[in-house]
Structures are given as C-alpha cells and as structure tokens.
Write the structure tokens for this entry.
Amino acid sequence: MKKSTMLGLLVLVIRRDLVLAMRRRADVLTTLIFFVMVVSLFPMGVGPEMDMLRKMAAGVLWVAALLASMLSLGRLFSADYLDGTLEQMMLAPQSLSMLVLGKMAAHWMSSGLPLVLMAPVLGLQFDMSVRALGVLIVSLLLGTPILSMVGAIGAALTLGLRGGGVLLSLLVLPLCIPVLIFGTGAVEAVSSGLSIASHLSLLGALLVLALVFTPWVTAQALRISME
Amino acid sequence: MLEVSNLACSRGDHRLFSGLNFHLHLGQIMQVQGVNGSGKTSLLRTLCGFLMPDEGEIVWRGERIRELGEDYHDEILYLGHLNAIKDELSALENLRISAGLSGIELEEKEAVTALRRMGLRGREMLPTKVLSQGQRRRVALARLLVSDAKLWILDEPLSALDVGAVALIQELIAEHLAQQGMVIFTTHQPLHVAGMEMRTLSLS
C-alpha cells in the first residue's frame, strides 16, 4: 500500500473520467453530432453565397461549439453526485479543487477536444482559407477549456436541481460571451488582414485566469450543493 | 480522540437534535440509535464535515475538524447509503479507484485479495451493473479491508447483506478495534462484536 500524491490523484481522476466516457460513448458522440449538425445546417439555410458564408464561418462554428459544450455540462458532476462518489471525493486527503481540476480536464478531453478536431473539416463547408482554419483551431484550443471550466461552476451550482439543465445554460452562456468575442475576433482578423496576436493573447489570459480561479470556486459550489 | 460537545443540527426548520455530547477513544465502538428521521445520517454526515452544525464543536486530536480539513479526511472512512461505485466499471476498477480517492495506491493483487475475502471470487472483472444489490454492497465494503483510516463512520453498513457477509463485517470491525481503530455506525439489524463493549447513543 502506497500513499498517493496530489499529482497521482489528479491523474487518477482524469483517467477514471476518460475510461467512463469511453464506456458511455453515446454521450460523447451526441455532443459531437450536435455540433456537426448545427454547423452544417447554416450553409443549407443561407444558400451557396461564398462571401456570406466566409464572413459568418467563425461565428457559426464558435456559437455551435458553445452550445454543444453546454449539452454535456449537466453530466459533469451529476452521476458522481447520485451514486455517492462525490461524497468520497470531498473526503479525499487532497484538496477538492485538485480533483475538480481533474474532472474539468477530463471533461474537456472528452467533449471539447473532439470539437476542436472536427472544426477544420466543418470549416471547409464555409470555404474558409487555410490560414483562417489554423487560427480557428488555435482559438478553439484556447477557448474550449475555458468553456469547460466556467461551465463546471454552473454545473456545481445547479447540482441536484430539477430542470437544472436549462438553468445551467442561462447561468453559463452569458459568462462565455468574452470567450466568444475574442475567439471569433481572431478568425475575423485574419480575413481583414489585422493582427491576430491581441485576440489570442486575451484568450490565453482568460484561460490562465480560469485555471487559477474556477477549480476553487467550483469546489466551494460543490460543498454548498452537498449540504 | 473524537470529542463532540453541545452539537445541534437541523434540516430545514426542523431541529433534529441539540446539546449532543460524547467522546470516542481508541479501540471504542459506538452505535447511533434512533427511529427513522431522528437524525442518525445527519449526525454521521456532520461528523464527516458535509453538514455545518448549527451549534457545537467536533474536535479531533484536540483540533476542530473544520481547521484540520484534509488531515482529518486522511484519518476517516465514510460509507454512506450510496455505494459510490460505477456500473460501467468492474469491481476491481471500482475498488482501486475508491482506494485511490482516499489516498491509497492499490496494487491489482491487493485489490483482488480484498475482493476475494469479501466473497466476490470470480466476479472481480465483471462490470458491477451485472452484480446483485448485496454484491455491490460488498464491493463498497471492500474498502474497509484496504483502508488505513483510524475512524470508520458507517451508515447502515449491513443493508442488503446476507448472514455470511454480516458475520464478515463483524469480524472486520473486531479486527479494526483490536488495532486501536474507532467505529461509529448506525444499523437496524443486530450487530455483535465479540469482546467489545458497545456504547450506544440514542437520538430522540
């Protein structure tokens, strides 16, 4: 028998959540298919005007990614809450914030990362340039973890509530507006020939800020929900 | 070791208990008794720190548990009504993960030995969703075998267990007490631990 370290516990939580996601593959796939469907509906609805499509591409992809990430947020803590695992996590000999960070990371890997990988393929439907696609991926890579982390706060606050899913979206979506603005801003800057660095560094700053504060805030929210 | 003074707890507007005093020393066992809704589970959850008491203090090794935080968590093991096991994972994976969450890295061999002692030979690799209610409870209780916690807080540990498993739990509790451990539990079934004085706390 060995005592586990803080890092060991973090890895354990990430591995556990990824294994669970793999065994419930339907949950991961619904998020991804929702994303693909919403994005693909726009070219069909708007019609084949290339200029228009190119202009709206970044916005459509980002909004769809935002909505898709809302879909899986409700499940972030609820399964662990219902079967009692959350109680055991709160009694872990390491800080709860660390475990929460692990759950956020696993959530991003199973719901955010597939969206990022899928985005360039969908971007082709909008006739996006290669450079714009590249910036889109980078902005999504920086932005989707923030969505998972901010969403976790909402998921923790609405834990155990009936109809919590809708309330969760109402709570979290407004908080994600800055991410949306800087994310789409970076891609639009490419097409208008402006510098993308400012948008991306602001996104990076938001990511660092979220990394520092959201695990702690989520842990406090979980403690309140458990009472 | 564990001292509780003047503890009061309420759920909603309803006062469950107040002015509760007791202490527990090494090698002692205490049963919390009371009718349904008398606050047994709330008391145990307060001892774990999930619930904030309205009044009173819980002191562990001379310090309040709120201030001890993770150091206190390291020394207790809580088993509630919920088994904290995942349907999709096998009994073995479940045990290794729950041991990991309580800070113990368990080798596969140790986990298998523990599960076999709990009477789950041949079921180690099955997903727990195909196990019966009693077998799932046994998977959860296997944590008792691999834990090094001083204080066990057990909420209805015997629910869904058959006669053989109840005898095994009594044996485990006796072993734990012999190693200077402490146990607080609730149950509606008779539980006898050989050679130990059973203290009782009645909530009314």
About this structure: Chain B has a mean pLDDT of 89. The longest strand of chain B covers residues 14-24. The CA atoms of residues 28 and 182 of chain B lie 5 Å apart. Residues 163-178 of chain B form the longest helix (16 residues).
